[in-house]
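Newbie here. two chains, one complex. Structure please?
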Amino acid sequence: MAMAADDIERLIKDRFPDATVQIEDLAGDGDHYAATVVSEEFRGKSRVQQHQMVYEALQGNMGGALHALALKTAAP
Amino acid sequence: MSEQDVQDWIGKQIAGNDVVLFMKGTKDMPQCGFSMQVAQILNHLGVDFKDINVLEDMSVREGVKTYSNWPTVPQLYIKGEFVGGCDIVREMFQAGELQEMLNTKGVANNAQTQTA
């Protein structure tokens, strides 16, 4: 199972409307992505908390439909 | 084991070992690229860690995700604290923050002399 980059971006944008989202399909197989998410909401949060917020936005797809998503998060 | 027993068991491993890595495979034979990266970083830093192979036990594989509210493996714990998965550990290592954390928490590693 795989997920389209657009779907990943939409889920993240739904949760973080202010976010800049960059998604790269690493292997061209729709299954290995790298995502960079920059949102004001990350300010003051630990890295673990920031990633947890993104995983939450992905609604259980991480570790499921989405096998590999290298994640980078930051506040602007 | 019940789900609660699994949570208790995971808690005990984390409490009983300074550095614990839940991973796919073992430190000598990782079976996933992400697990391998974290094991390599720890080895590179000369950190003694306990490896727990989640592929050996489906209940631990699922249980550790619940434990930390983190959907993937590997998962690194230092002195009882969840540090993160592969991305975070790599980022921290590259920034020197992981070395700093080990030193602050008093975990022996070979970066000690440079930052102490």
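Moderator note: Residues 5-74 of chain A form a domain with the GMP Synthetase; Chain A, domain 3 fold (CATH 3.30.300.90). Strands of chain A lie at 20-25, 32-38, 68-74. Thread marked as resolved.
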